[in-house]
Amino acid sequence: MSKKSLPELPLAGWQDTLKTFHMWSQIVGKIALAKTPLINHYWNATLRVTPRGLTTLPLADASVGSFSIEFDLVAHQLVIKCENGETRSIELYPRTVSDFYNAVMAVLGELKIEADIWTMPVEVEDPIRFTEDTIHSSYDPEYIERFREILIWTNGVFREFRSRFVGKSSPVHFFWGSFDMAVTRFNGERAPERDGADSITREAYSHKCISHGFWCGSGAIQEPAFYAYAAPEPDGCKVAQISPPESYYHLDLSEFILPYEAVRNSASPEGTLLDFLQSTYSAAADLGSWDRGQLER
Question: What predicted TM-score, i.e. pTM, was given to this entire model?
Answer without folding.
Answer: 0.96
